[in-house]
Amino acid sequence: MCRHAAWLGAPRAAAALIHEPAHGLRTQSYAPRRQRHGTVNADGFGMGWYDPVRPEPIRYRRSIPIWADANLPALAQVARSGCLLAAVRCATTGMPVEESATAPFTDGPWLLSHNGRVEQDAVRDLADAAESTCDAAWVAAAVFQRLRTGLGLGESLAEVVVKAGARDPGARLNLLACDGTSLAATVWGDTLFHRPAEDGVLVVSEPLDDLPGWQAVPERSLLLVTSSDGVRVQPL
């Protein structure tokens, strides 16, 4: 399993997801509180953000524990955007520990993280190719393939999760994706929370702090966040 977090709203530094909160992703990498499978997320980490001068997101990821990267704290302070996504990884047993297997995955304007596990046979024929042999890379490739046909962010996540979940009843398919102006996430086998703020919305695997306002998303749900419509939750 993994832990991931995203922000949509007024520009914030990536450190607001990773280092600044009392229970940010750095802390969740070695002491998660709500994780249902696995106890340490030390098999890599990554973050992605959007800059107005680039049509595609900027991504930084490594296959080492997040606490082992001495350059990350300074980078996370200057990586600033109105749309952020970050993740720490606990690799599925038997899956490679390498940068190409580490979220966020990206294609065009999209970023995606997978928190969970799924049998590869349940997803391999949903995509033509993937950048890694790991299950998460195949899930990401399947979502991106649908996005490239023009399907919406939420619809793409929902289609892949429902199809893969039907083929592998034990799958855990919590996905978190963004395109720079909207977020979408699925709840299928693990926890997801959101919290509105005056200037945006946080979406996370587990709360980043103990402040009030965190709302749990029901199991087998799709969460959608846009600046115009706010937060919407619907069943999968």
Structure commentary:
- This protein has 236 residues and is of the alpha+beta class.
- It has a single domain (2-235), classed as 4-Layer Sandwich (Glutamine Phosphoribosylpyrophosphate, subunit 1, domain 1), CATH 3.60.20.
- The chain has helices at residues 15-18, 25-30, 72-78, 135-148, 153-167; strands at residues 2-13, 45-49, 58-62, 80-89, 105-107, 110-117, 172-178, 182-187, 193-197, 200-204, 215-216, 221-226, 230-235.
- Strands 3-2-4-1-10-9-11 form a seven-stranded antiparallel β-sheet. It has a six-stranded antiparallel β-sheet with strand order 5-6-7-8-12-13, covered by helices on one side.
- Helix 4 (135-148) crosses helix 5.
- The protein starts with a strand and ends with a strand.
- The mean pLDDT is 96.
Which CATH top level class fits? Alpha Beta
Number of helical segments with 4 or more residues: 5
How many structural domains does the protein architecture include?
A: 1
State the helicity in percent bands.
Answer: 10-25%
SSE run: EHHEEHEEEHHEEEEEEE
CATH fold label? Glutamine Phosphoribosylpyrophosphate, subunit 1, domain 1
CATH 4th-level superfamily? Aminohydrolase, N-terminal nucleophile (Ntn) domain
Average of per-residue pLDDT values: 96
Portion in beta strands: 25-35%
Poorly predicted sequence stretches spanning 5 or more consecutive residues: none
Major beta-sheet overview: 7 strands, antiparallel
CA gyration radius, whole angstroms: 16 Å
Q: How many individual β-strands?
A: 13
Q: Judging from the principal axes of the Cα atoms, what is the shape?
A: globular
> Structural class of the helix and strand makeup?
alpha+beta
* Ends apart, CA distance between termini: 21 Å
The CATH architecture classification is: 4-Layer Sandwich
Order of strands across the biggest sheet? 3-2-4-1-10-9-11
Keywords: Glutamine amidotransferase, Hydrolase
GO molecular function: hydrolase activity, acting on carbon-nitrogen (but not peptide) bonds, in linear amides
Function: Catalyzes the hydrolysis of the gamma-glutamyl amide bond of hercynyl-gamma-L-glutamyl-L-cysteine sulfoxide to produce hercynylcysteine sulfoxide, a step in the biosynthesis pathway of ergothioneine.
Domain Glutamine amidotransferase type-2: 2-236
